[in-house]
Amino acid sequence: MAVRVGVIGVGYLGKHHARIFSDIEGVDLVGVSDVNEAAAKQIAQTYRCRPYTRYAEMIVQCDAVSIVTPTTTHHTIAMDCIAAGKDLLIEKPITADISEAKAVVEAAAAKNLILQVGHLERYNPGIVAAAGMIAEPRFIESERLSPFMGRADDVDVTLDLMIHDIDIVLSLVRSRLTDIRAFGESMITEKIDLAKAWLEFENGSKAIITASRLSSDKVRTLKVFQRDAIITIDYQKQELSCSRKNGKEMVITVVQPETREPLKEELHDFIFCVRHRKRPGVSGIEAMNALDVALKITDMLKGEKKV
Asked: Which residues are within 8 A (CB) of 213 and not within 5 positions of it... i.e. 6 or more apart?
């Protein structure tokens, strides 16, 4: 029996959710919803489903829902979908604050619903390929830089970009965070546009994470330093290199995994979890942990807490 799916929000990313769901075997894209009626109609016509301007009318026809709307709306929409008994994929960040995230996580758990959050980089082939090489990271350095695109300027860069790498770092280190230091600036929006954070963990691991939407170039890299190797991941090229010491020399091995579309991998995984009632790799708990760190960094940068 087909899994009936609806997409709420068909903007920059939501239209790709609709595209991919419409092409997954065993999935029936029943509708798309957006407050922009013209956008909903256009996407619905393209992917042969029904348009809605009120998501409440759509979700009654669905088994599962993808929420791809502004972060500030996630909590309200998610709680409505959970009340209706629908499995959920929510684009990152899960919500705008921790209390909202906790409410969503607890409500979904109480109804035994699947709750997955769209931390896309978990599905990047470079990260997937590196997973088997990374054992005990001692230091992690990440850069996520973008030119200003004029979108997502309703949230700080910590929630827009940095949260991706916070999630990846937490998934790799798997130790209690003991210290955070941060620096950031607002430059062209009223939100934080540039941020740099230093994280220290109980097991001795450290990480420095840089995020900016003021760059002239798009950069997406992650470097993991451990005792036996230096592993570098280029998210854009979906490749990694591993440098290992051989005598007095460093031997570099480049790995080029099969190119895949991370969003497609993510949505296929969501449908798998829905069908088989499996816990997603990025559940509400992991998403809430990443959000908690991102918000602590944001608070520091806004002076609400001392660094």
From this structure: 145, 146, 147, 148, 149, 152, 157, 160, 161, 193, 194
